[in-house]
Amino acid sequence: MSTTSNKDIKDFFDGFFKPESYNEHIEREALMLHYRVMQLVEKAMDEKGWNKKVLAEKTGKSQSYITQLFMGNKMVNMSIIALFQDVFNMEFKMETELSEEKCITWKYIKQKPSNNKYMKLSKASSILKAAEDKINYELTA
Question: Please, which contacts does 35-38 make with residues 24 or more away whose CB atoms are closer than 8 Å?
């Protein structure tokens, strides 16, 4: 009968989460930033009742390009972020916290926002961090 220690399990799963190289780490971080931006775009679309077709029309981009952005096949750049800011009448704001966790927040800038118009990924980030800490604790215990 074979038993697996918590350390063996932790080492096994660490292999999934640790990039093999610095370049892979940067690629993964870039993809995570991309998905955070697209999550905010999707939230703004929901609030306006837009689908991808409407977003394509409003931005002057093809539906295919918009779909590729959401799927992660194409990455957002500063120009597309500026375009999203314009069509949604909002501003993307990037912050660094003392814990060196990066977060992206958004807010409307051309109209007075209500509390439900704000979405802070820093809260989501801290929830994910707490869950990750709990998993790491359970794996090492």
Answer: 35/72, 36/103, 36/104, 36/121, 37/76, 37/81, 37/84, 37/92, 37/104, 38/69, 38/70, 38/72, 38/76
1 in any annotated domain: no
Q: What is the CATH number of the domain that holds 55?
A: 1.10.260.40
Q: Is 91 helix (H, G, I), strand (E, B) or coil?
A: strand
Residue 1 tokens, joined: 């009968």
| Average pLDDT for 42-57 | 95
140 versus 80: the higher-pLDDT residue is 80
pLDDT digits (tens, 9 = 90+) for 51-63: 999 999 999 999 9
